[in-house]
Amino acid sequence: MSDCQGLGDCDDARMQRIYEYLDGALTHDDIAEIKDHLDGCPECFEQYDLECVIRVMVKRSCTEAAPANLKNSILDRIHSSNPVEA
């Protein structure tokens, strides 16, 4: 994050803090610090915004259920396979 170096000495550790912020794993003081940094650092805000989009997409795709026939097909294959002998 070269453009950001002068603004907030941004590096992987800073991004880790932003991930913790997104996960809700920070204290109130730390949250305020990250919010202030994101307000003043366009590059980190861009990374934050991208991570938000990714998380929404993952969450959305995790709520979709597999078709019932797929589950039945998998169970049928499991039950028809020969047990492994130890």
TrEMBL record:
Protein name according to UniProt: Anti-sigma factor (TIGR02949 family)
InterPro entries on file: Anit_sigma_mycothiol_RsrA, Anti_sigma_zinc_sf, Znf_put
Keywords associated with the record: Transcription, Transcription regulation
Domain of life of the native organism: Bacteria
Keyword Transcription among record annotations: yes
Pfam short name (any one): zf-HC2
KW Zinc (keyword) present: no
Domain annotation Putative zinc-finger: ranges: 15-44
Gene3D superfamilies (alphabetical): Anti-sigma factor, zinc-finger domain
